[in-house]
Amino acid sequence: MNYVITGGAGFIGSHLAKSLLEKGHSVKVIDNLSTGKKSNLDGILEKISFHDVDVLDYQSLEKIIQGSQGIFHLAALTSVPESYLKQKEYNDVNVKGTENVFQIAKKFHIKTVFASSSSVYGNTKNIPTTESEKRDPINPYGITKLQAEDLAVRYSEHCDVVGLRYYNVYGQDMITGTGVITQFYQNIQRQKPPVIDGDGGQLRDFVHIQDVVRATISAMEKNTGSTFINIGSGTVTSILQLANLFIKYSGLDIKPVFTNEKEGNVRASQANISLAKRLLGWQPQTKLKDWVESLYKS
Ligand SMILES: NC(=O)c1ccc[n+]([C@@H]2O[C@H](COP(=O)([O-])OP(=O)(O)OC[C@H]3O[C@@H](n4cnc5c(N)ncnc54)[C@H](O)[C@@H]3O)[C@@H](O)[C@H]2O)c1
């Protein structure tokens, strides 16, 4: 099949590109390299077609996407703290950029699987959270994802649109990112303690990149109809537990330090993944503890 990945030079998109190639598909990547890197595609650049294009550039987008059989729309600005400072930019890329992709999908009748986020839920009453939970995001990034979902509902009248609500995705190549795992990893590399925002009691659902990639490809391949699906591990880890996992497996004699809670962080987040299991025939396989341990095994 001929697939397009927007945001394909990013963390999730580059892993997705590699996996699709391994399965024998052809892949076009659209990415303006604002946060992604061409080096994420090392080893496959010559096997894909790479387009340094902004998702806000409708004309170029249309030319590249025309003739493909599926779109994975992952391009977005993704930092919660930054989304407070650059609300217009976040709205442009995450909402208008998404609408561009949906318009083209509609025009050519192409199925789209796009990256939504667990952030659409905000501070939910019910944990683990099912897809029918009220959506009430608490930060500008989450609001853009909510608006993208609303667009998806509108465009799903014309073509299949599947929104995957990714939880906290982790994996080796994210060690240069901005998330909590990246920060802990980088501090430990410098023999410094992990710095916890708040009391460390915040609960997160960490899901491994390879599990996310399998779910994302299944969402394209399976005949699910238009829907939203949680993609998490279904388990929770507190931020303090995460810090202690890094300390334990790195073998350093340090303790985490605590600082002020940051704006826009939900208290607890855990996916109910029954729908993903049922619709995608999918099951997460990698455990966070095993992955952290593997980082420090020589
Ligand atoms: N990583 C996670 O834990 C997580 C959780 C929930 C949702 N998501 C969503 O999954 C998707 C991928 O996330 P990621 O972690 O790989 O992030 P990432 O930042 O590594 O990748 C996003 C990619 O989009 C590209 N991009 C940004 N603006 C663009 C534009 N205007 N035009 C073209 N390309 C542009 C960036 O250069 C980058 O390569 C995003 O939509 C994100 O919101 C990620």
Report on this structure:
- By secondary structure, the chain is of the alpha/beta class.
- It folds into 2 domains: 2-167 and 209-231, Rossmann fold; 169-204 and 234-270 and 285-295, UDP-galactose 4-epimerase, domain 1 (Alpha-Beta Complex).
- The protein is built from 10 helices and 13 strands.
- A 7-stranded parallel β-sheet has the order 3-2-1-4-5-6-11, with helices on both faces. Strands 7-10 form a two-stranded parallel sheet. The chain has a two-stranded parallel sheet with strand order 8-13.
- Helix 1 (11-22) links the parallel strand 1 and strand 2 (26-30).
- The chain is globular, with a radius of gyration of 19 Å.
- It starts with a strand and ends with a helix.
- The structure holds nicotinamide-adenine-dinucleotide (NAD).
- Nicotinamide-adenine-dinucleotide binds next to helix 1, helix 4, strand 5 and strand 7.
- Residues 6-7, 9-13, 31-36, 54-56, 74-78, 93, 97, 115, 117, 166, 168-169 line the site of nicotinamide-adenine-dinucleotide (NAD).
